[in-house]
Amino acid sequence: MPYVSLEWLNSMVSLKENTTIEEVAKDLVKVGLEEEQIVPPPVTGPLVVGKVLTRDPKEQSNGKVINYCRVDVGQYNDEPGTGKEPSELPSRGIICGAHNFEVGDHVVVSLPGAVLPGGFEIAARKTYGHISDGMMCSEAELGLAASAEGIIVLDKYLDGPVPEVGSDAVALLGLGEELLEINITPDRGYCFSMRGVAREYAHSTGAKFVDPGVPGNLVASLPENTEDAFPVVLADQAPIRGNQGCDRFVTRVVTGIDPSAPTPDWMVRRLQASGMRSLSLTVDITNYVMLELGQPLHAYDLSAVSAPLVVRRAKAGEKLTTLDEVERELNPEDLLITDSPEGEGSRVLALAGVMGGASSEVNENTTAVLVEAAHFDSVSVARTARRHKLPSEAAKRFERGVDPQLAPVAAQRVVDLLVELAGGTDAGRVLDLNETKPAMVFEFDPQHPARLVGVEIDNESVKRFLTEIGCEIDDSGELWQVTVPSWRPDLTGPAHLVEEVARLHGYEELPSILPQISTRGSVPQDLRSRRQVAATLAASGMTQVLSYPFVSNSHDRQLLAEDDPRRQALKLYNPMADDAPWLRTSLLDTLLDVARRNLARGNDSFAIFEQGMVSRAGDIPAATMPEVQTPNAEQIATIMSQVPAQPWHLAGVLAGNRAPLSVLEETKPFAWNDAINAANLAASAVGANLLVATPLVAGSEPEHVNLRAMAGQGIEPMPQAWLAPWHPGRVAQLRVRLGKRLTVVGYAGELHPKVCQNFNLPARTCAFELDLSALCDSVSDQPKQVATLSTFPLAKEDLAVVLPAAVSAAEVLVEVKKAAGPLLAEARLFDVYSGKQLSEGEKSLAFSLKMRGDHTLEAKETTALRERVLAALKKKFGASLR
């Protein structure tokens, strides 16, 4: 985000006296530049000019020489004989480990109470046998440089005279200024410069703006091309969207540069206020002009490049070591700047518009430079920057659109500064290779803003607003001919001009009218179903979570068998994280990571669920984009046809105890039937009838699951073959009926012990996963007929029967419901007994029967129902009344 300095802003636009950074923020937000934050000064508290009176160096036991100094700090001095360490001189005692100063030198002193960059608070402290009542500061300690070999000696550091002892050093060094960080939308790239911000401030306040981007302000008139100019060839053979990668290229040559010339303080402060550190004068000047005008520039060591420069696309196998010392393999879509050194052929110098190469960079011995100011295609630069993960300051500006008329002005500004500050000489070699297109012109109806915005704005005001932003207007006809300014590539149609008129008229002047809400619209059925599922599970006590859908191969090894088809995942070409480039094929891929994280944070009992899409790779070929040009409609359709299926899934993980530990009741851990219950609950929320099948492993089935009675409903038991990541004997296959066939929509049960171990989960952790899309498809769209609620009271009967132990409670419950008929409202198993009072191989099951009819049931009716159920159980299972 750009930073706004009041001092720098005031050099381009007239600020009122005593204008605060808060006021500037309010004025800029009126024209769409939102405040991100106000950055406080890097240094607060007493930072003053001091003079070294005495210096007493002593070697310490560790071999280090430490200086004990008495420093005159003016009105902050301790009087003679007073202070933390009394002295005959009015001064303060300070310990210093630097040695680049002498008695009589003026230094920068931070006194107790000061806070330096990084939150470093200064206080009096005893060290090396003395009390240090302050600190003499270096550039690094004040945030003025990345490193420093000694403290600041003002006699050498300042260009002018040193202020009197005790005076404020914060203002002297430019450290007391607050900065405004603003948020720039992608269509306002021109505001990535102080020129652009100053222009917008002038729009907001009416203050006078002096445009530094036109000849006659910061630079003199621009020179014509010369015959001895450094030559450039534009040879882009693979344009994007029909646009050449480069349509303007300016070169200038400056010789006789003093490589040891320092960067002036004012420039260093402005660079630092913008988040850049000072490197060397030549590089600092190119960075400064970029921040000032918005035109990225590059300076080559003239002795390291050979004519001509060539702008072209990369060739297969080419590489470049960029200024960050990373060797990069280039892509045929990358736009390059190359030269032709004798005997070497074409050599890559830079990624155009992104970053220069190390072979031609300016160094400490450079005395002659080739200045480049060019205009590159925004799409080409954006793709290169993202491909190589190089979000450079130059790329940020080019990809948002740079003023194509700014290159020669910026190049001249660099030349002027190199001559003024570095002692250079303008060699007079000028090239401006200009193939830019004419400015866009389109028709505009001056009444269009009033129609779109809903506020009457007269023609004179519309013309004034458009002229302010730089448009040229021919209003001789009923429809105006508007020429948009070169620095506003985002203005491509009349609607954009209306937006500018509304912005400068004032958003606060536009009426706020609530839209009329139509009740005829409705939420799509699939979204409504997902909301119902989430609300139902949340109401049952589960917690909804959200995880990223990206996984690594390690998940597959922990969850899936080698031949599992779910290993066929889609790999992202440009993943968010290099260690997780695959799209998940199951929600458990990422939900188990959430469970592991909860446990690691001390949450040892939880029930979580997630709704999300999974990807099915299948046999679909990988979708590829065209190499250079923007895809056409046919190519986009082809790509979309290759997008794999992405069904919605629902998954949950249950670990630990069902309820918190209590002295009043025994706490039970989650069991696999809890996972089945949660899946059933989700299915019931959308009106689906979920059929459960489990492996017929002795003693593994939960009592509530109807295993042996499933055959009567056409449900086959689940195959006993193990399916990762589930426990082979404690997993249920979840099915729905589609017509006459059953379709598997998911699984629920215990996770395999190895999965629990790999994810550091408690033993016997349970989970479920459902294909939510298939589950919802199984539900008929026809309205369901709901039974009428009876107002008559319930009648209750209990029934306890003795029967063979091999008969499951689920089978008995099915027979109870069948025999009881329509009067039965609810049947529930409430007791299971086996013991000495029963014969071997027998058990007792007790059921609670609740009945309701279309009248108040009499005792003889409930007794008859009870007897009918008992007779049916006796016939089916040989049961007897207990």
TrEMBL record:
<dbReference type="GO" id="GO:0005524">
    <property type="term" value="F:ATP binding"/>
</dbReference>
<keyword id="KW-0067">ATP-binding</keyword>
<dbReference type="InterPro" id="IPR045864">
    <property type="entry name" value="aa-tRNA-synth_II/BPL/LPL"/>
</dbReference>
<dbReference type="InterPro" id="IPR009061">
    <property type="entry name" value="DNA-bd_dom_put_sf"/>
</dbReference>
<feature type="domain" description="B5">
    <location>
        <begin position="437"/>
        <end position="512"/>
    </location>
</feature>
<dbReference type="InterPro" id="IPR045060">
    <property type="entry name" value="Phe-tRNA-ligase_IIc_bsu"/>
</dbReference>
<dbReference type="InterPro" id="IPR033714">
    <property type="entry name" value="tRNA_bind_bactPheRS"/>
</dbReference>
<dbReference type="GO" id="GO:0004826">
    <property type="term" value="F:phenylalanine-tRNA ligase activity"/>
</dbReference>
<dbReference type="GO" id="GO:0000049">
    <property type="term" value="F:tRNA binding"/>
</dbReference>
<dbReference type="GO" id="GO:0000287">
    <property type="term" value="F:magnesium ion binding"/>
</dbReference>
<protein>
    <recommendedName>
        <fullName>Phenylalanine--tRNA ligase beta subunit</fullName>
        <ecNumber>6.1.1.20</ecNumber>
    </recommendedName>
</protein>
<feature type="domain" description="FDX-ACB">
    <location>
        <begin position="790"/>
        <end position="882"/>
    </location>
</feature>
<keyword id="KW-0030">Aminoacyl-tRNA synthetase</keyword>
<dbReference type="InterPro" id="IPR004532">
    <property type="entry name" value="Phe-tRNA-ligase_IIc_bsu_bact"/>
</dbReference>
<dbReference type="InterPro" id="IPR005146">
    <property type="entry name" value="B3/B4_tRNA-bd"/>
</dbReference>
<dbReference type="InterPro" id="IPR020825">
    <property type="entry name" value="Phe-tRNA_synthase-like_B3/B4"/>
</dbReference>
<dbReference type="Pfam" id="PF17759">
    <property type="entry name" value="tRNA_synthFbeta"/>
</dbReference>
<keyword id="KW-0694">RNA-binding</keyword>
<comment type="subunit">
    <text>Tetramer of two alpha and two beta subunits.</text>
</comment>
<dbReference type="InterPro" id="IPR005147">
    <property type="entry name" value="tRNA_synthase_B5-dom"/>
</dbReference>
<keyword id="KW-0479">Metal-binding</keyword>
<comment type="similarity">
    <text>Belongs to the phenylalanyl-tRNA synthetase beta subunit family. Type 1 subfamily.</text>
</comment>
<dbReference type="GO" id="GO:0006432">
    <property type="term" value="P:phenylalanyl-tRNA aminoacylation"/>
</dbReference>
<keyword id="KW-0963">Cytoplasm</keyword>
<keyword id="KW-0820">tRNA-binding</keyword>
<dbReference type="GO" id="GO:0009328">
    <property type="term" value="C:phenylalanine-tRNA ligase complex"/>
</dbReference>
<feature type="binding site">
    <location>
        <position position="500"/>
    </location>
    <ligand>
        <name>Mg(2+)</name>
    </ligand>
</feature>
<dbReference type="InterPro" id="IPR002547">
    <property type="entry name" value="tRNA-bd_dom"/>
</dbReference>
<dbReference type="InterPro" id="IPR036690">
    <property type="entry name" value="Fdx_antiC-bd_sf"/>
</dbReference>
<dbReference type="InterPro" id="IPR041616">
    <property type="entry name" value="PheRS_beta_core"/>
</dbReference>
<dbReference type="InterPro" id="IPR005121">
    <property type="entry name" value="Fdx_antiC-bd"/>
</dbReference>
<dbReference type="Pfam" id="PF03483">
    <property type="entry name" value="B3_4"/>
</dbReference>
<keyword id="KW-0547">Nucleotide-binding</keyword>
<keyword id="KW-0436">Ligase</keyword>
<feature type="domain" description="TRNA-binding">
    <location>
        <begin position="41"/>
        <end position="170"/>
    </location>
</feature>
<dbReference type="Pfam" id="PF03147">
    <property type="entry name" value="FDX-ACB"/>
</dbReference>
<feature type="binding site">
    <location>
        <position position="490"/>
    </location>
    <ligand>
        <name>Mg(2+)</name>
    </ligand>
</feature>
<dbReference type="InterPro" id="IPR012340">
    <property type="entry name" value="NA-bd_OB-fold"/>
</dbReference>
<dbReference type="Pfam" id="PF03484">
    <property type="entry name" value="B5"/>
</dbReference>
<keyword id="KW-0648">Protein biosynthesis</keyword>
<keyword id="KW-0460">Magnesium</keyword>
<feature type="binding site">
    <location>
        <position position="499"/>
    </location>
    <ligand>
        <name>Mg(2+)</name>
    </ligand>
</feature>
